[in-house]
Amino acid sequence: MGVRPEHGRKLEQWLRRPLGRRVYETELSLLEDLPGVFGFFALQLGYWGPERELLSDLKVLHRFRVCPGGPEAEVRARLDQLPFQSESVDAVILPHSLEFAEHPHRLLREVDRILVAGGHVLVLAFNPWGPWGLRRFLHRDRSEPPWSARLLGERRIRDWLSLLGYEIVQARRYFYRLPVGNRRLLERLEFMERAGPRIWPMMPGAYMLLARKRVCTLTPIRPRRRLRRAVAAPALAGTRRQSY
Q1: In angstroms, what CA-CA distances link 229 with 102, 169, 198, 221, 236?
Q2: In 1-114, at which residue ranges do the beta strands (DSSP E only) sit?
Q3: Domain 5-218, classified CATH 3.30.70.141, yes or no
Q4: What is the rounded CA–CA span in Å between residue 42 and residue 212?
Q5: pTM, two decimal places
Q6: How far apart are CA 77 and CA 56, in angstroms?
Q7: Which of 67, 113, 69 is nearest to 87 (CA)?
C-alpha cells in the first residue's frame, strides 16, 4: 500500500518536537542547492513536514504532495498506485517514505514508472547503523514513528536504484549528533555535526541519495543480410577474377 496512512498524524507531531524539527531543518538545508533538478512537475510522496517546504527549492512549475489520506495531501492516492501517466513527472522526493512502506521496492518501481527519462528521484532515509539504529532498538514503543520505521541501509537503496537503471548524482550523509529529545542537549551536541564526517563518517543519523534516470539511446544495428553480402562480395569478386 505504500506509506501507511495511520502514521501520518503521529509523524507530523514528532516533526514538531525538538529532535524531529532539527532533522527536518537539516534536510531543508540539504535541498537548497540540488544540481540539475528542474522541469514541469514534481511530487513529494508521503507524510513529512508541516508544509510543502521540501519542494519549494526545486526549479519546477508545479508541485504536489501525495499522501494516502489526510487534509495535508493535495493528491490522495496509494503510493504504490499513483494516479499519474507513465513518464509524466520530472522529479520525485521520497522523504523517509520507503522506510514506512509495506513494500518499498514496489514503491520505487512505481516511481520509476512515472518518471521521465532524465528525471530525478531524491531519497531521504535514516541510517540503520550507529546511534540512530541503536536508539530505535532500545526504544520502548516501536509502534511510534519514526522508531516504527523499517530502516534501510544506503547500500541496499543504491542497489535498487542501480537495478532500475539510475545513476547516483549526489550522496550526502547528515545528522551526526545523538538522537536525543532534549532541545538544550541537542544544541550542545552541535559539535558532532562538524566532527562526524571526519571522525565517524559511516555513522550518520541519515543519508540522502539523488539519482537520475538514465536516458536509453538506440544504437542502429546493420541488418545481418547486408553484412553477409558485404562479406561475400570480395569473395565472389575474387572467384570471378580466377575464372578468367
Answers
A1: 57, 45, 63, 15, 10
A2: 38-45, 59-67, 75-76, 89-95
A3: no
A4: 14
A5: 0.82
A6: 22
A7: 113
Q: pLDDT 10s digit of each residue in the chain, 244 long?
A: 444 555 667 788 888 899 999 999 999 888 887 777 778 889 999 877 765 567 776 777 788 888 887 666 788 888 889 999 999 999 999 999 999 888 999 999 999 999 999 999 999 999 998 888 888 777 666 667 788 888 899 999 999 999 999 999 999 999 999 998 899 999 999 999 888 888 888 889 999 999 999 986 554 444 444 434 433 434 434 444 444 4
Nearest Cα residue to 172 out of 33, 30, 44, 23: 30
Of 217, 111, 220, which is closest to residue 157 (Cα–Cα)?
111
Round to whole Å and give the CA distance between 78 and 53: 22
- Residues whose CB is less than 8 angstroms from the CB of residue 180 and which lie 6 or more positions away in sequence, other chains included: 19, 186, 189
Residue entry with cell 518518471: 115
Residue 176 and residue 197 in contact, taking contact as beta carbons nearer than 8 Å: yes
Residues 6 or more apart from 7 whose CB is under 8 A from it?
47, 100, 145, 148
Retrieve residue 116's grid coordinates.
521521465
Per-residue confidence (pLDDT) for residue 228, from 0 to 100: 41
Spatial distance between the Cα atoms of 16 and 200, rounded to a whole number of angstroms: 28
* CA neighbours closer than 13 Å in the CB half-sphere of residue 99: 27
Among candidates 193, 197, 194, which has minimal Cα distance to 178? 193
| Helical (H) or strand (E) element with 174 | strand 166-174
Query: What is the pLDDT at residue 61?
Result: 77
